[in-house]
C-alpha cells in the first residue's frame, strides 16, 4: 500500500506555546482517517500546519507527503503537490467570483505541476476554459448548487452551508490526493451536514485519502472513516476502527482522559 | 527583504514594458521656463486669434499671482523654470494612419492603438507630446454633426462654438494650475454632440508624454447638447525619464438638459510626473455626468473630478481608483456641488497603497440652501498591501439645506495573512493571491470600463505590483 502521508513526532508552536507535542500518523492512499478531540487539543493546529500556515512553527519532527519532506514548502506548493484543506472558516474575497477564483487556482496548480502556463496560449486557454466550465457545472449539479453560485463573490454573503459547499466544490475541482476537512460540520444544521458530507462522498474517489478533523461524531455517520484517532493535549492518545467514534460519542472525552492517565501517557 | 532591490526590479520591468521612448523627433520647442514671451510665441506659432492670446496672457498673470495650493501633496520640488511649455513633435498632421510618421506610429503600436483602431474604435485623437498628430473620425458621426478633433483644430475650424464655452466652467482664476494650463495649453480634445445624437461607441484618445521636461497641458472641452450621449475615453502611458515632468490638464464638460456624458480616464504616468488636473462638469436639468477615473503611477497626482449640479434632476457620479506604489502620492477623490433641488450624486473612491505609497481621498460634498430633496452618497475604500503604506481621508461636507439625504462611508482594509493563506492553499503564489485580492477590490470600477481598458487597468496594476511582495 502506498504511504501518502507520514507525520513523525511532530512538535508545533504557535506564538511560543507548544500545541502539538509529538504527533505521529500515517495515512495510506485511499484511506479515510478521522481525528477527534476536545476543544483546544490541537486539531486546527494540525490542519494549518499540514497546509503550511506561516504562523505555525514546526520545532521538531517531519511531514512526508508522497515521499517528499514538505516542511520547507509554501502552502501553494503543497497544494500543487496534492494537499487540500477545507477551511473551518473560509475567507471572503470581495469582488472575485468563485468562477474566477477556481479558474486561477486550477491554472496555477496545473502550471506548477506541468510547467505549462495555459494563460499564455490563447487556443489552449480558450478550450481549457470550456472544459473548466463544463466540469464546474457538473460538480455544482452533483453538489446541489445552482449555476448562478459560481458568479457570486467568493464566500461573500454565503450562509454557513453555502461556504462549506463552496469548499467541497473547490475540493472537487482541485482533485487533491489528500483532503483535510477541518471541522467541516461546524455551524451546519443536520440537513446541511447531510448535503455537504454526501457531496464529499460523491466527488471523491478511492484513489484519494481524506483526513476528517472533527469534534463530534455525527459527520462520521456520512463520511465513514477507516481509522479514528483521538487527539488530546497535542498527542494522539488512542487509535482504532470506526467504532471508537461511537464509543467517544457515548462516553465523552473525559473517558479518554481517564484511560490515558492510567495507561498511555508517559 | 531588501526593498531597494525590489524597487529597482520593479522600475526595470516598468521601463522594459512602458519606458520605451523614441529619440526626440520634435521640430520645434520653446525655451525652458515661462514668460509672456513664451506665451506669445506659443500663440503665434499656432496662428491663434487675438482673443485667445489675450486669454493666455491674462491667465499667465493670474498664474504668477496665485499661491501654490496649501493642500494635497508636496510640490516643493516642482520647478516651473525647468520645464518646456511647448513642443511640436511633427509638422505633419495625420488624418489617416498611413500618414502618421513611422516613429510616432511605433510608439502608438507599443500602446496597442492600431489594434484598438481596427477593432471598433470610433475615432482616435492621440496626443503625442504637445500636439495631436493623428486623428480620425468615422464619417457617420460627421454626418450627424458630431465634432471630434483636437482643441487647436477646433479653435481654427469652429471658433464660435469654442469661444462660447472655453474657460466658462473652469476659469483661469479657479486655481494656480488651471491658470497655468490656460496660459500655455496645447492639444486636448474637443467634442461637440448635437441635440438628440447618441454616439454609441466610445470616442477615445490615447496620448503620452514623450519628451524630457515636456509639460503636457492639454485642454479638453466637451459640449453635449440636450438629449445627447457620448462616452469619451482617455488613457496615458508615459515613458520613464530622469527629469521631473509636469502634466497639468483642464477638462471642461457641459451636459445640457437630458443629456448624458461619461468620461473615462486611465492614467499611468511614470513615477516622476506631477499630475495636477482640474476636471469639472456643469450638469443641467435631468442630465447625467459620470466620471470614471483610474490613476496609476506619477510622483504626485492631485485630481478631484467635479460635478456641478446646476438644475433640477441633475445627476453626477464620480468613480475613482488610485494605486499608490513606492514613493507615490495619489491625492484624489471627487466633488459634488448641489446647486438645485432634487439633484443627486454618487462618489465612489477606491485606493490601493503599497510600500511607501500614500493614497489620500479628498472630497467635497456641498448642498446649497434650498436644494431640497437632494441626495448624495459618498463611499471611499482603502486597501493597504502592507504595514508601511498609508491612506488618509479628507472628506469635506457643507450642507446648508435640511431636507436632504446624505450618506458617507469610509473603510480601510489590509490584505491579511489569513486571507493570503486561504488563497495560497488553493495553489496561488503570494503575488497571485495579492493580485487577485486587488483585482476584486477594484472590480466595481473595472466593470464600468470598456473591455480593453479593463484588461489594461488590471495588467498595469499587476505590473506595478510585480515583485512587490516581500
Using brief descriptors, characterize the structure shown.
heterodimer; A: 266 residues; alpha/beta; Rossmann fold; six-stranded mixed sheet; four-stranded antiparallel sheet; globular; B: 470 residues; 13 helices; 23 strands; 35% strand; disordered N terminus
Structure description:
- The complex is a heterodimer of chains A (266) and B (470).
- In chain A, 38% of the residues lie in helices and 28% in strands.
- With 266 residues, chain A is an alpha/beta fold.
- Chain A has a single domain, classed as P-loop containing nucleotide triphosphate hydrolases (Rossmann fold, 3-Layer(aba) Sandwich), CATH 3.40.50.
- In chain A, the strands form 3 sheets. Chain A has a 6-stranded mixed sheet with strand order 6-9-10-3-11-12, with helices on both faces. A 4-stranded antiparallel sheet of chain A has the order 2-1-4-5, covered by helices on one side. Chain A has a two-stranded antiparallel ribbon with strand order 7-8.
- In chain A, helix 3 (98-114) runs parallel beside helix 5 (160-174).
- With 470 residues, chain B is α/β, with parallel strands linked by helices.
- Helix content of chain B is 27%, strand content 35%.
- Chain B contains 13 helices and 23 strands.
- Chain B has helices at 3-18, 36-45, 50-65, 102-110, 113-119, 139-144, 151-157, 159-165, 176-184, 417-424, 430-441, 443-446, 451-465, and strands at residues 28-29, 87-88, 123-128, 131-137, 147-150, 189-193, 203-207, 219-224, 229-237, 245-247, 250-255, 260-269, 273-283, 288-297, 300-303, 306-309, 315-324, 329-338, 344-353, 358-367, 374-384, 390-399, 404-414.
- In chain B, strands 5, 6, 8, 10, 11, 13, 15, 16, 18, 20 and 22 form an 11-stranded mixed sheet that branches. Chain B has an 8-stranded parallel sheet with strand order 7-9-12-14-17-19-21-23, covered by helices on one side. Chain B has a two-stranded antiparallel ribbon with strand order 1-2.
- In chain B, strand 3 (123-128) and strand 4 form a beta hairpin.
- In chain B, helix 3 runs antiparallel to helix 9 and helix 7 (151-157) crosses helix 8.
- Chain B is globular, with a radius of gyration of 22 Å.
- Chain A binds chain B through residues 51-55, 74-76, 78-80, 84-85, 87, 90-96, 100-101, 104-106, 108-109, 112, 153, 170, 174, and chain B through 417-419, 421-430, 432, 436-437, 439-444.
Amino acid at each position: 500500500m502506498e504511504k501518502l502521508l507520514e507525520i513523525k513526532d511532530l512538535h508545533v508552536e504557535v506564538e511560543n506555546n507548544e500545541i502539538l507535542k509529538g504527533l505521529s500518523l500515517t495515512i495510506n492512499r485511499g484511506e479515510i482517517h478521522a481525528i477527534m478531540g476536545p476543544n483546544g487539543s490541537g486539531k486546527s493546529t494540525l490542519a494549518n500546519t499540514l497546509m503550511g500556515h506561516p504562523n505555525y512553527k514546526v520545532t521538531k519532527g517531519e511531514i512526508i507527503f508522497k515521499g517528499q519532506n514538505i516542511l520547507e514548502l509554501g502552502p501553494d506548493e503543497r497544494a500543487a503537490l496534492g494537499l487540500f484543506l477545507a477551511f473551518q472558516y473560509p475567507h471572503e474575497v470581495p469582488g472575485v467570483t468563485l468562477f474566477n477564483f477556481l479558474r486561477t487556482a486550477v491554472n496555477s496548480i496545473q502550471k506548477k505541476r506541468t510547467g505549462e502556463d495555459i494563460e499564455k496560449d490563447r487556443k489552449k486557454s480558450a478550450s481549457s476554459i470550456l472544459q473548466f466550465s463544463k466540469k464546474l457545472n457538473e460538480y455544482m449539479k452533483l453538489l446541489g448548487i445552482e449555476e448562478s453560485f459560481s458568479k457570486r463573490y467568493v464566500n461573500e454573503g454565503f450562509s454557513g452551508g453555502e461556504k462549506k459547499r463552496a469548499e467541497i466544490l473547490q475540493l472537487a475541482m482541485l482533485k487533491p490526493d489528500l483532503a483535510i476537512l477541518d471541522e467541516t460540520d461546524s455551524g451546519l444544521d443536520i440537513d446541511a451536514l447531510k448535503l455537504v458530507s454526501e457531496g464529499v462522498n460523491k466527488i471523491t474517489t478511492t484513489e484519494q485519502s481524506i483526513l476528517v478533523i472533527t469534534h463530534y461524531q455525527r459527520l462520521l455517520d456520512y463520511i465513514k472513516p477507516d481509522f479514528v484517532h483521538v487527539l488530546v493535549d497535542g498527542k494522539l492518545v488512542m487509535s482504532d476502527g470506526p467504532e471508537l467514534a461511537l464509543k467517544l460519542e457515548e462516553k465523552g472525552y473525559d473517558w479518554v482522559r481517564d484511560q490515558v492517565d492510567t495507561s498511555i501517557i508517559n | 527583504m531588501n526593498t531597494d532591490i525590489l524597487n529597482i526590479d520593479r522600475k526595470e520591468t516598468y521601463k522594459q514594458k512602458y519606458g520605451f521612448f523614441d529619440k526626440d523627433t520634435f521640430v520645434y520647442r520653446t525655451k525652458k521656463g515661462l514668460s509672456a514671451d513664451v506665451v506669445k510665441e506659443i500663440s503665434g506659432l499656432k496662428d491663434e486669434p487675438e482673443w485667445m492670446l489675450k486669454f493666455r496672457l491674462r491667465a499667465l498673470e493670474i498664474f504668477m499671482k496665485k499661491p501654490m495650493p496649501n493642500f494635497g501633496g508636496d510640490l516643493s520640488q516642482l520647478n516651473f523654470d525647468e520645464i518646456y511649455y511647448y513642443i511640436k513633435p511633427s509638422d505633419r498632421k495625420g488624418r489617416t494612419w498611413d500618414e502618421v510618421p513611422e516613429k510616432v506610429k511605433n510608439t502608438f503600436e507599443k500602446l496597442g492603438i492600431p489594434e484598438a483602431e481596427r477593432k471598433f474604435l470610433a475615432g482616435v485623437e492621440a496626443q503625442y507630446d504637445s500636439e495631436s498628430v493623428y486623428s480620425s473620425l468615422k464619417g457617420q458621426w460627421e454626418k450627424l454633426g458630431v465634432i471630434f478633433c483636437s482643441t487647436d483644430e477646433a479653435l481654427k475650424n469652429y471658433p464660435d462654438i469654442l469661444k462660447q464655452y472655453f474657460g466658462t466652467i473652469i476659469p483661469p482664476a479657479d486655481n494656480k494650475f488651471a491658470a497655468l494650463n490656460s496660459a500655455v495649453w496645447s492639444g486636448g480634445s474637443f467634442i461637440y454632440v448635437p441635440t438628440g445624437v447618441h454616439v454609441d461607441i466610445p470616442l477615445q484618445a490615447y496620448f503620452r508624454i514623450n519628451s524630457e521636461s515636456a509639460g503636457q497641458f492639454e485642454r479638453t472641452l466637451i459640449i453635449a447638447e440636450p438629449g445627447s450621449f457620448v462616452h469619451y475615453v482617455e488613457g496615458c502611458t508615459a515613458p520613464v525619464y530622469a527629469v521631473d515632468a509636469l502634466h497639468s490638464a483642464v477638462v471642461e464638460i457641459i451636459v445640457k438638459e437630458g443629456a448624458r456624458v461619461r468620461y473615462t480616464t486611465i492614467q499611468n504616468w511614470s513615477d516622476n510626473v506631477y499630475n495636477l488636473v482640474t476636471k469639472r462638469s456643469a450638469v443641467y436639468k435631468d442630465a447625467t455626468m459620470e466620471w470614471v477615473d483610474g490613476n496609476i503611477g506619477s510622483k504626485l497626482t492631485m485630481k478631484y473630478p467635479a460635478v456641478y449640479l446646476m438644475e433640477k434632476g441633475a445627476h453626477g457620479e464620480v468613480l475613482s481608483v488610485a494605486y499608490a506604489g513606492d514613493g507615490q502620492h495619489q491625492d484624489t477623490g471627487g466633488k459634488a456641488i448641489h446647486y438645485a433641488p432634487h439633484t443627486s450624486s454618487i462618489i465612489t473612491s477606491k485606493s490601493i497603497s503599497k510600500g511607501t505609497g500614500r493614497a489620500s481621498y479628498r472630497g467635497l460634498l456641498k448642498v446649497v440652501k434650498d436644494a431640497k430633496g437632494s441626495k448624495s452618497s459618498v463611499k471611499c475604500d482603502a486597501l493597504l498591501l502592507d504595514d508601511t503604506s498609508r491612506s488618509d481621508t479628507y472628506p469635506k461636507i457643507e450642507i446648508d439645506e435640511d431636507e436632504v439625504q446624505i450618506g458617507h462611508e469610509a473603510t480601510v482594509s489590509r490584505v491579511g495573512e489569513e486571507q493570503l493563506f486561504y488563497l495560497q492553499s488553493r495553489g496561488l503564489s503570494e503575488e497571485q493571491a495579492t493580485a487577485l485580492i486587488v483585482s476584486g477590490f477594484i472590480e466595481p470600477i473595472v466593470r464600468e470600463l470598456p473591455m480593453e481598458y479593463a484588461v489594461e487597468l488590471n495588467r498595469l496594476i499587476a505590473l506595478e505590483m510585480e515583485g512587490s511582495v516581500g
